[in-house]
Design brief:
two-stranded antiparallel ribbon, alpha+beta, two-stranded antiparallel sheet, single chain, elongated
């Protein structure tokens, strides 16, 4: 079977499941079975619809190629010093993603790539303000060095959806340090 045949086969299975029919036997599934739950059935209809669109467009590779051709490569992130003067500093410590979002709000991101928090972190790592460490859970994470602490990069305990976690935060002084060095950060993106 080729890819399109597999996708069509999967779509047929989803159509039958959405209608409460066992796709292997063709028999109706008892009313009290999970697949007859309205929310589950709607999901099956949705997946069948998506698979149908993928089949219509010629398969997964054709969809991926169409997506690539629609999104032109944007130039690396750049912002003028004048635009940076409008940065909205916070007296409350911010996450690096929030800093990046506030910077992105100052430029037309349809004509340039967005500034990412990871680009800021990469630069901070390169100058010794943060280090990559292994957490207790065995995952890699960035933490401030003692040098980073001196400019206002700290770790705060926060409560999240999955419970407490450690968040690296940037006080107003650290935000200022990042904004003052935006040219060095963006130069790194062009390498």
């Amino acid at each position: 079977m080729d890819e399109l045949q597999i996708l069509e086969h999967a779509k047929n299975y989803m159509d039958k499941l959405a209608q409460g029919i066992n796709p292997l036997t063709g028999e109706p599934v008892p009313e009290d079975e999970l697949i007859n739950n309205v929310r589950i059935s709607r999901c099956f209809f949705y997946v069948a619809e998506v698979l149908g669109k993928v089949v219509e467009q010629g398969g997964l590779e054709a969809v991926a190629a169409a997506r690539r051709s629609k999104s032109p490569e944007l130039p690396p992130f750049h912002i003028s010093q004048e635009a940076l003067q409008a940065f909205n500093y916070s007296d409350e410590p911010l996450l690096v993603t929030h800093i990046a979002n506030r910077v992105n709000a100052l430029v037309d991101t349809s004509s340039t790539k967005k500034l990412s928090g990871s680009l800021i972190l990469k630069w901070l790592d390169s100058i010794g303000m943060v280090d990559v460490v292994l957490t207790e859970a065995g995952r890699k994470s960035r933490r401030p060095t003692s040098q980073g602490n001196t400019i206002g990069i700290t770790v705060q305990m926060r409560d999240g959806y999955n419970g407490p976690y450690q968040a690296v935060t940037y006080n107003r002084q650290a935000q200022q340090f990042i904004i003052d060095n935006m040219e060095a950060i963006t130069a790194q993106a062009e390498m």
